[in-house]
Write a structure and sequence with these properties.
The chain is α+β, with helices and mostly antiparallel strands. It has nine helices and four strands; from the N terminus they run αααββααααββαα. It is 60% helix and 11% strand. The relative contact order is 0.17.
C-alpha cells in the first residue's frame, strides 16, 4: 500500500504563503444604516409581556374552543410552520458543510479495448473486469470562520422564522377574538333592533287609533310609518351583519358553518383592561420586532460569510479502496490502494463575483436594519394611537353610562305618570323607544372598547408561543 501526495509538504507551505498574498481583495460599499436603539426610544427588552393566551381573560368558553380549533387548523399557520421547518433544516445543511464526510462506493466495470488501440497485440480487442470497493473521506477546515458565520446566519433566520410563526398565531388569535366580539355584538344589536321595531310598530298603531278619533293628524301617521320602515331596514342589516360575522368565524377556525351556528347563545363578553400601566415600554418584546432584530444579526453573519469567501478553502481528501480484476483477489492485501490529497483553493481573480456577493449581503443588511427601524417606529406609533383611543372610549363609556341611567329614570317616571293617568300611552311608547336606542348606543361603545382592548394587546405584543 502506497501513500500519494499531490505536493511535498514544504511546497504546500510555500503555496499557503502565496495564497494569503494572492487572494482577491474585497471592494464594497460600507453599511449605511444603523438600527435604532431601544433605550433611545424608551423601549424595554426585559419587560413582562402579556401571556400568549391573553384571550382567556374574556372568560368565554365558546371563544376558547374557537381559538383552540383555529390554532390547530388554520392554513396560514401551516404555511408559517413550513417556513420554520425549512429554516431549521437550513441550519443542519450549513452545519454539514464543515468537518468530516465519508462516501462509500462499490462498482464493477466491464470494458473492451479497441482492436486498433495503441496497446500491445495481446490486449487488443480483449474484455477486462475491474472490481472496486472504496471509501472517500474528506475534511474541510473552517480557518476563516465562513461556516461559523453561515451557521450563525442560519440560526438567526430560524429564530426569526420561529418568532414570525408565533406572531402569525397571535394574528389569527386577534382575528378570532375581534370577529367573535363583532358576532356577539351583532347578535345583541339584532335583539335590540327587534325590540325597537316592535316599539315603532306599536307607536304606529297608537297614532292611527288617535287619528281615527281625530286626535292626530295624517302626517303624524306617515312620520311614524316612515320610522317603522327605517327600523325594519336596520333589522335586515343587523341580520346580515350576524351572518357575515358567523361566516368569518367559520373560515378563521377552519370549521363548517354548522359548527358556528351550534354555539350556545351568550352575551357580549365583559372584559375591562386597565390602561394606566400600558405604554410602549414592552414593545421590544413584540415577536415581529424581535424577528426583525434577528434578521439584522443573520444578515450581518451572512456578510461575514461572504467576506470569508475571499480567503482560501482548505481541505484534506483521503481515498481508500480495494481494486482487483478478479473478485477473489478483491479483499487480498495486494488489492489495497490509498490516496491522500491535501488541497488549498484560493480565489485569485473572480471577475467581480465575490465582490458582487459581498455587496449583495451588505445591501441585505441595510435592508434588514431599515425593516427593523420601520417595524419599531410603527409599533410605537400604533401603540400610542391605541392607548389614546382606548382612554377616549373609556371616558365616552362613562358619559354614556350616565346618559343611559338618566334615560332609564326618565322612562320610569313616564311609566309612573301613565299609571296615574297623567301621560298618554303614546308618550310612554316613545320614551321606551328612546331607552332602547340609548341601549344600542351603549352596546356600540362597549363593542368599540372591547375591540380596542384586543387591538391594543395585539399591538403591544405577547410572550412568544411555542410552535406547533
Amino acid at each position: 500500500m502506497r501513500n500519494y501526495h499531490t505536493l511535498p509538504l514544504p511546497a504546500l507551505g510555500l503555496l499557503a504563503a502565496l495564497t494569503l498574498s494572492a487572494c482577491a481583495t474585497p471592494d464594497v460599499a460600507p453599511v449605511k444604516s444603523q438600527p435604532l436603539t431601544a433605550a433611545a426610544l424608551a423601549v424595554s427588552e426585559t419587560a413582562t409581556p402579556y401571556r400568549a393566551d391573553w384571550w382567556t381573560a374574556l372568560n368565554d368558553d365558546s371563544l376558547n374552543r374557537l381559538l383552540q380549533q383555529a390554532l390547530q387548523n388554520n392554513p396560514g399557520l401551516d404555511a408559517a410552520d413550513a417556513r420554520l421547518r425549512a429554516a431549521r433544516a437550513g441550519i443542519d445543511s450549513v452545519a454539514s458543510s464543515e468537518g468530516l464526510k465519508v462516501n462509500g462506493r462499490i462498482s464493477r466495470t466491464r470494458s473492451r479495448t479497441s482492436e486498433f488501440d495503441a496497446l500491445p497485440p495481446p490486449m487488443l480487442g480483449e474484455w477486462s473486469t475491474l472490481n472496486t470497493v472504496a471509501a472517500d473521506l474528506s475534511y474541510r477546515f473552517d480557518f476563516w470562520g465562513k461556516t461559523r458565520a453561515q451557521l450563525s446566519a442560519a440560526r438567526g433566520q430560524a429564530r426569526a422564522a420561529e418568532l414570525e410563526a408565533s406572531d402569525a398565531r397571535q394574528s389569527v388569535a386577534y382575528a378570532i377574538v375581534s370577529t367573535y366580539i363583532e358576532w356577539r355584538s351583532a347578535q345583541a344589536a339584532q335583539n335590540l333592533l327587534q325590540l325597537d321595531q316592535s316599539q315603532a310598530a306599536a307607536i304606529v298603531q297608537s297614532i292611527r287609533q288617535r287619528a281615527q278619533n281625530g286626535l292626530a293628524q295624517p302626517d303624524e301617521v306617515l312620520q311614524a310609518q316612515a320610522q317603522l320602515n327605517e327600523a325594519e331596514e336596520r333589522q335586515l342589516r343587523a341580520t346580515q351583519r350576524v351572518a357575515q360575522a358567523a361566516h368569518a368565524l367559520a373560515a378563521l377556525s377552519a370549521q363548517p358553518q354548522t359548527a358556528i351556528d351550534a354555539l350556545p347563545a351568550a352575551e357580549l363578553p365583559q372584559w375591562q383592561l386597565d390602561t394606566r400601566a400600558l405604554g410602549t415600554a414592552s414593545l421590544g418584546l413584540r415577536a415581529d420586532v424581535q424577528a426583525a432584530r434577528e434578521r439584522i444579526e443573520a444578515s450581518r453573519a451572512g456578510m461575514d460569510a461572504a467576506r470569508a469567501d475571499f480567503y482560501p478553502d482548505v481541505r484534506i481528501n483521503l481515498l481508500a479502496s480495494l481494486t482487483a480484476q478478479e473478485t477473489g483477489d478483491l479483499f487480498s492485501r495486494g488489492a489495497r490502494a490509498l490516496q491522500l490529497t491535501p488541497a488549498i483553493t484560493l480565489p485569485i481573480f473572480s471577475n467581480g463575483e465575490l465582490n458582487a456577493r459581498l455587496n449583495s449581503r451588505t445591501a441585505e443588511l441595510d435592508g434588514a436594519i431599515a425593516s427593523y427601524n420601520q417595524t419599531l417606529l410603527g409599533a410605537i406609533r400604533d401603540t400610542a394611537d391605541r392607548v389614546s383611543q382606548l382612554q377616549a372610549l373609556n371616558q365616552a363609556e362613562t358619559a354614556n353610562r350616565a346618559a343611559l341611567q338618566a334615560r332609564r329614570d326618565s322612562a320610569d317616571k313616564v311609566k309612573s305618570r301613565l299609571d296615574a293617568g297623567l301621560a298618554s300611552r303614546g308618550n310612554w311608547l316613545a320614551e321606551q323607544r328612546r331607552l332602547t336606542q340609548a341601549r344600542q348606543s351603549w352596546l356600540d361603545l362597549q363593542t368599540q372598547r372591547l375591540q380596542s382592548q384586543a387591538a391594543l394587546i395585539r399591538t403591544l405584543g405577547t410572550a412568544p408561543a411555542a410552535a406547533r
